Input
Amino acid sequence: MKLFICLLVFAVVLGDNLVVYDGTSGQLQNGFDNWSWATVNLQSQQYVPTGDKYSISVVCQQYQAFYLHANNPFPVSSFTSLSFKVNGGLSSDNQVEVWLLSGGNETGKGFDITNQIQANTWVTVSIDASLFDASPSTVISGVWWQASTLALSGTIYIDDIVFVTTPPPPATPVSFTLNLSKRTPVSPLIYGVNWANGTQLARNKYTVNRWGGEGVTRYAYDVDAANHASDWYFEDLPNAIPNPSTLPFNSSCDIFIQTTLSASATPIITTPLIGFTPIDRTVRCGFSVKKYGAQQSTDPYAPDCGNGIKPDGKTPITGNDPADTSRIINSTFVLAWLNHIDQAVGKGKVQYFELDNEPGLWNTIQRDVHPNPLTYDELWDRTVAYAGAIKKAYPNSKIFGPVPWGWCEYMYSPADNCQDGADRKAHGDLPMLAWYIQQLGLYKQKYGVQLVDVIDVHAYPTTNSIGSAAEDPATAALRLRSTRSFWDPTYVDESWVAQPIDLLPRIQGWIDQYNPGLPIAVSEYSWGDDNIITGALAQVMILGIFGKFNVFLGTRWVTPSLNTRTEEAFRIFTDYDGNGAKVQGDSVVVMSNNTDEAEAYAFDNNGALFIVIVNKQNSPLPAVVTLPTIKQGTVNLYSFSQSQALGHSGTATVANSQFTLSLAAWSATLAVVPSS
Output
């Protein structure tokens, strides 16, 4: 990857917008001098924006800099934004951060423009002064563009450098009006995660901790080992525990459950349906090189274990023997495990059990033991066999299923390859999840048993960039906008799905039609990297959506890393003041004049109101909130943003049933309104 290392440093004269360089004359203006120690051409004609004659070409080697200097430093408060045009020339792989300097040293925070530098394309970059996170009184001696590397391959081009000093017109306030007449109870179990440790559970007050994922589809409780399938060379690997001689007691799952219960959280345990599990604690390979021949890739620590792909990189090895790694199991094995859990942690302490994990992917991820794609009938037959046995032995348990991975598995069987094929047509041409719910209802009518108590699905964005760490303006906006796929029948998913997903209302409609009263769980989802602000804001919105649409249980994949904004997205609901205060009450309706710029979620707890507002814009936004029952009072505010950790951020005053507030750029704010 090509990394750009250049510094651009200059000063400004206060007053109107200050042009530092424009491509018409190809000259620096207003007393700026070129002090560069890089290769700089102020009158390059290789890449020039339309209407200009020149641009600045810059080539840097070994921390060289393009450096424009003036003798009149200026305070941050004197400008509102920095604007310039940039072109990547032959490359889009230049990593660049823009920094303010004070006395020649970096101050505040850098602003990453890497994703805005495009090959052969001029892009106008405008950076709001507030995003540099420098004090308004800080005296600025310059600005630089910098990436920390020793060398640069390539040239970038810069034009039309301007400090903008004219304030933008004031933003139109976004308004929110609460309506307390329509209420939805909020399940406390929506604030859950996967694989939290004791520190994370205690710190963030997560309410549910899930033992799940494809890595436990073939977990053997009695030897505390699992096959890691395509995630790691189809290997049986034992879990590291202090004393294996005490197994099946003191297994990693026992420890997980005890840790979860000690934190007053609810464990949910994935039980296997696939019919195979490791033989013992010996490391075994699903695709041995000695047995099945050379392969595309092998485990660097166990070179006999291959990835099951021939050296051409595309042809799967077939006909392998599942007995290489696994013994055959059935519901008796699962019942023995549940009995062990009762003995290990206390009878009835664990009551939530999932029917495996994403069975629609068995023929790819678990293909060493299940190479054939799942059908409607296989899914149902395994549900009857395993859930039926659990319900008979443990009638108070809650069974979650069928745990599909996403859109294709909601609508079709893997045997139909994500299209309306023969398997679907043979089952009333119903979507697979709808047909499954229908069968649950028919089974209940016939036998008086609710085999599956909670319809459990996974939900991930269908555009890969949404789940990544990318935060360029287009990806950031799409990430926040795409949360509408959970609830909005008018939102056409902006991916290969290319139709409304409308997830929660769609599933609720199937439930109402075929098996009324079943709750919904979303046991895996993630909407962006832990360390980006829009990923955190999407998390806040999803928790608000879960409350609004009566989701019974939610567990994010995986637990957010410590000290991230995504961690704070949970804590703004579960422990907003750091002393255990949490959002409580029923979800109530919030009406808004502009949901494109901001979203709000409100909760009424016997007259006390909690209003969570997300500013989806990368600029400050004024807001007005109208309350239906409270005429006056003081509102406490708690918020986080890109530059501000979650904490108390001031107060607002209710007058005539309204209060106003200023929402920071890309921020989440909780308004706590006491009852009158």
